[in-house]
């Protein structure tokens, strides 16, 4: 069964359907959260929150507004970004207070990715963006920076970053169009 | 429309891509979502851009650890679900074909616009999953009450996130239930009851921890179906029990338990 159908069954309280849905989406959810959050313990926490939220909030999914997978991954991304931003804010607070922030050893999980067709395709399409488009999109999506922070990091005006993001996504769409 | 209005609208339109990438600050995100509700063009644009952003997600997929599956499926067994957000929309039925019929008209009513991502609970979502009632936040609640609930939600999230968190529950023929998510390593548990009703005459439901060769230990009084978080539990504990006690609770149980739950399956009792 497809995720869309499963999610509708889950909204009706079907635990078997949830198990099946878990099988379909736990990998994408976990991988995305890990890419954004990076810290292994926090990754598990956020992924667990998101997967449970699917069970709890399944009835909020409106099939008329897009696919279930897109709804699920959008939710996962939102939660991951919220977490990484509050972690960053806490680190900055600690540094301001002169305390030494304790950084757990981050394993560079993002790099040890297993090769997949989709992954390879996305990477190739990202390579086709201009450098500023690519950095604007990836700093926001994969690293959880706001567009203001992206503008600061890249020393670009806000308007330029917004445009690079839109053009970057549009070019990505063109390139990925054939991959589905 | 004034020039300034047009300018502001154009400025809001330009936020569609940052919004799809979750790159707005919270206040800006809310402002944009309000705008989205009244702007057919940008809601279509945001949907397309969000689909693009999601393609970036697919390329990061990685197998989730097996322990995560166990924890999530265990929690699902004791977690109630939120009702559908709008009374006008039928709750999805058990059979998918019926549910499909339900959503077709919804799709036809296209201009009914909601933000693409309906805001879902809060960042402490995992906590809310234990008992939805915790988050049945009323408009009349004071700041203090909200803060207290948030603090409790954090504690619950903490228990849920423990590597050895396990869940178990019991329900009797009369529908009286007790559920627990516990971590033996953290020596903490979140306990919920359901179907117990409100005892008459100001009496209360009191939760007890049962230990071998020791008196029952009070873990607190239930306030309706709000969960209790119990700290510093003895790992030798064998079960939980709930009794009806006079107003304010008792030092030791004075009545027979209305519900009981063994803790062996959640790692206690060694």
From TrEMBL, chain A:
Pfam families: Sigma70_r2 (PF04542), Sigma70_r4_2 (PF08281). Gene3D superfamilies: 1.10.1740.10, Winged helix-like DNA-binding domain superfamily/Winged helix DNA-binding domain. The keyword Plastid does not apply. InterPro entries: RNA_pol_sigma-70-like, RNA_pol_sigma-70_dom, RNA_pol_sigma70_r2, RNA_pol_sigma70_r4_t2, RNA_pol_sigma_r2, RNA_pol_sigma_r3/r4-like, WH-like_DNA-bd_sf. Residues 26-88 form the RNA polymerase sigma-70 region domain. Residues 119-172 form the RNA polymerase sigma factor 70 region 4 type domain. Keywords: Sigma factor, Transcription, Transcription regulation. It comes from the Bacteria. Belongs to the sigma-70 factor family. ECF subfamily. NCBIfam families: PRK09646.1, sigma70-ECF. This is Sigma-70 family RNA polymerase sigma factor. It comes from Streptomyces siamensis.
